[in-house]
Amino acid sequence: DGGITQSPKYLFRKEGQNVTLSCEQNLNHDAMYWYRQDPGQGLRLIYYSQIVNDFQKGDIAEGYSVSREKKESFPLTVTSAQKNPTAFYLCASTPDRRASGNTIYFGEGSWLTVV
Amino acid sequence: QKEVEQNSGPLSVPEGAIASLNCTYSDRGSQSFFWYRQYSGKSPELIMFIYSNGDKEDGRFTAQLNKASQYVSLLIRDSQPSDSATYLCAVNMGGGTNAGKSTFGDGTTLTVKP
């Protein structure tokens, strides 16, 4: 079945450690996104990529990094510079990078906790 | 002022009643509007989208858009306990470099009591 696969579902990070969240989609979608959700709040955009080898910062990019070497993959690294990384991370994709009316398809999310 | 604001909730309605969820947005250039349902600990799932002024109905759900007032709403008729979730309003700001980027409200939590 087509969809977006995020891994791991649960991840624990020690202080000062970098961690990488994986996101793979087999929907042949052009654009991919990373959102962060804190408890009781909406989604905030971290990074997005409309095409391979190109990506743009979202509203809260500090302390995060991404790459888009393949159309199917958009991993997110949470660096030690991100001081409050405990949150629910959602990877998403949309079919057409040029269209405004795109439906957003979400992965199942990854829970990151700092220990 | 947030770009997308939703009534803060929580909202509680009895089973069978109509639940009304509201959302306002600040950018007049916004072009597409979405309602997502999110169960606790799960990812959001699309309920409705609307692009043009007026009403759009899908089963028990009706989305209403008024671009002049910068207002979009979701009505849930014959509310069921399974509708209990957080509802997120999302607004897409247009094409070009912003294509696909959406801004989300903080959500309204709905509880439907049997």
Explain what the structure shows.
- The complex is a heterodimer of chains A (115) and B (114).
- Chain A is built from no helices and 11 strands.
- Chain A is mostly beta strands and 115 residues long.
- In chain A, strands 2, 4, 5, 6, 9, 10 and 11 form a 7-stranded mixed β-sheet that branches. In chain A, strands 1-3-8-7 form a 4-stranded antiparallel β-sheet, with no helix packed on it.
- The termini of chain A are far apart.
- With 114 residues, chain B is mainly beta.
- Chain B has strands at 4-6, 11-14, 19-25, 32-38, 45-50, 54-58, 61-66, 71-76, 85-92, 102-104, 108-113.
- In chain B, a hairpin with a 6-residue loop joins strand 4 (32-38) and strand 5.
- Chain A binds chain B through residues 31, 33, 35, 40-45, 48, 50, 56, 58, 90, 94, 96-104, 106-109, and chain B through 4, 31-32, 34, 36, 42-46, 49, 51, 88, 90, 92-107.
Brief write-up:
The complex is a heterodimer of chains A (115) and B (114). By secondary structure, chain A is an all-beta fold.
List keywords for this structure.
heterodimer; A: 115 residues; mainly beta; 0% helix; globular; B: 114 residues; 6-stranded mixed sheet; 5-stranded antiparallel sheet
Summarize the SSE layout with pairings:
The complex is a heterodimer of chains A (115) and B (114).
Chain A: E1 4-7, E2 10-13, E3 19-25, E4 31-37, E5 43-51, E6 54-57, E7 64-66, E8 76-78, E9 87-94, E10 105-106, E11 110-114
Parallel strand pairs in A: 2-11
Antiparallel strand pairs in A: 1-3, 3-8, 4-5, 4-9, 5-6, 7-8, 9-10, 9-11
Chain B: E1 4-6, E2 11-14, E3 19-25, E4 32-38, E5 45-50, E6 54-58, E7 61-66, E8 71-76, E9 85-92, E10 102-104, E11 108-113
Parallel strand pairs in B: 2-11
Antiparallel strand pairs in B: 1-3, 3-8, 4-5, 4-9, 6-7, 7-8, 9-10, 9-11
